[in-house]
Amino acid sequence: MRAFLKNTFLFLIILLVVNFALFLLIRGFYIKDYEEVDLDFDEFILADSHGTPLGDFAEEFEVHNFSAQSDSYLDMGRKLRYLLRKGKIERIYISVDDHTLSPTRENQNNLDRSAYYTERDDFDSWFEFVNEKYLKYYLVFLNDRYSLVIKNFITEELFDYRRWGGSKGRIAWENLTEEERRRQAQDRFENYFEQDGASEKMRDALMNIISLSREHNVELIGVRFPLSRSYYGILGEESYHADSIFMKESLRILDFDNVFLDRDSLFRDMDHLDREGGEIFVDILLDSLESFIEYK
What we know:
The chain is of the alpha/beta class. It has a domain at about 40-120 and about 175-295: Rossmann fold, CATH 3.40.50. Helices cover about 50% and strands about 10% of the residues. The strands form 2 sheets. It has a 5-stranded parallel sheet, covered by helices on one side. Helix 1 (about 1-30) crosses helix 5, helix 2 runs parallel beside helix 7 (about 200-215) and helix 6 (about 180-190) crosses helix 8 (about 230-235). The protein is globular. The termini are far apart.
C-alpha cells in the first residue's frame, strides 16, 4: 500500500512538472498576447482576425485595437464586460461581416482564452466559473485546444524552414495565379458557410452585446472589413446577416467589404489584409467616421 501511494505521489509530481512546462510554452506562444489590452483608451475595435492587421495604427485616432484571431461574439461579449468593469467606454467598433454568425464560430473561437476576462457574475454557477477560468486555463490536459497549440508550435516554429535558413516560404496573395486564388477563396467559403442557417448562440451573443452597450450608453458601430476580389465574387449574396441585425436595431454600419477589390497587394490572403493594408484601412475607416460626425 505504501509503495502504491509513493508511486501515485511520484506520478502526480511528474504530471504537475510536465503540466507546468507545457503551460509555460502555451502561455508564451498562445495566451500572452491575448491578455494584453490598454485601458487608457475609451474607444475599442472588437473583431476576429479581420481586425488584427490594423495593429496599433488605430491608436493615432485614440482607438485601441482589441481584436484577436478566431474571436467570436461570445469572446467579444466577455471583453466588452471586462472593459465596462475597468473604465468608461465611449465607443466600440465591432465586426459585422458575412461570416460572423456562422455556426463554425461555435467551435472556432477563443472561449478558453477569453475566460481570462470573466468574473463570477458571468457564469451560472461557481463550478462553471472555476472550471472555465481556472481548471481549463491552468491544467493543460483538460483543455483540448492546448494540444493543437503544442502541435502548431512544433510544426510552425521548430520546423519552419524560414527560421533555419530554408527557402520554403509563403507566396504573396497577389503573386498567386487566379486559379489558385479562387481555390483558396472557395475553401474559406466552404469553411464558414457549410450550414444554411446562422448560429443561434452567435446571434444571442451579438444581441447581448447590443443590449449591454445600450445599457451603459456605449456607441456601437458595425464594421464590414475589406475582401479580395476573388473572395468577394465567390461570396456573392451569401451571408449570415449580422449587419441586418444592426440595421434592424438602427445601429450604424461602416461597410468597406469592396473598397480594395483592385488592390490584391494589400491582402495577406483572400479575406485578410496584410500590415500595409491594415495601416491604409485604419485611415479610411476612422477618417470616414470623423467626416460623418463633422458633417452630421
